[in-house]
Amino acid sequence: AQSVTQLDSQVPVFEEAPVELRCNYSSSVSVYLFWYVQYPNQGLQLLLKYLSGSTLVKGINGFEAEFNKSQTSFHLRKPSVHISDTAEYFCAVTFSSGGYQKVTFGTGTKLQVIP
Amino acid sequence: ETGVTQTPRHLVMGMTNKKSLKCEQHLGHNAMYWYKQSAKKPLELMFVYSLEERVENNSVPSRFSPECPNSSHLFLHLHTLQPEDSALYLCASSPRDRGLDTQYFGPGTRLTVL
User: Fold this and answer.
1) Is B19 a residue whose pLDDT tops 70?
2) Handedness of CA B114, B46, B108, A26 (dihedral sign)
């Protein structure tokens, strides 16, 4: 069975410190990988995605993620966080299944940036 | 401005009421989705429409009834809901229903069932 795991439900970090939000997936088929962010009282918006090519993907707001096929991971990183980065972050993976692409989201990680 | 709007933003209803959620996208997309977001649970895909035809129904109870009259509009009709149906209902759209397409989300409707 395919699944997406975000081990950390909450991550507190001081302003200007680096942060890594972890995402692991389980799949025996090829995947597409996404990170979405949800600010309070808003819907999700795309931060970045990996489809193919370079395993290091850069997104908006200074975030980047690295696809590691051997470790089945797609961790999100930012070298220096701002207060405005306080939000919930969702990893999503699309699996190919019988010709239909099925998107599965993780449970989310709440990033709390402390002044 | 995400290009996907949802109304109402908040809805409180009793278990015997009938109400509808509305989603509209202004992006020219061909695929639209309904998701349920509950606390501490993964985002649950409920329905997928591609070119106004339903292509996915993830075993959602019949008290939720979707309608897609055209590629810009998506409705979720609600009747005889249960308190456990209280959640944030998110609508999304994408250019097509291919997995590599980015989904664009609306702000959601916060539903409370009393």
Assistant:
1) yes
2) positive
Across chain B, mean pLDDT equals 91
User: Which residues of A are less than 8 Å from B97 in CB distance?
Assistant: 100-101
Contact call for A4 and B4, based on CB within 8 A: no
Q: A79, A64, A60: which is closest to A19 by C-alpha?
A: A79
In this structure, the dihedral spanned by the alpha carbons of residues A1, B95, B34 and B87, taken in order and rounded to 10 degrees, is 90
Residue A43 to residue B4, Cβ atoms within 8 A: yes
At A99, the pLDDT band (50, 70, 90 cuts) reads: low
Q: Which residue has the tokens 């972050």?
A: A89
Given a contact cutoff of 8 angstroms between Cβ atoms, the answer to whether B48 and B55 are in contact is yes
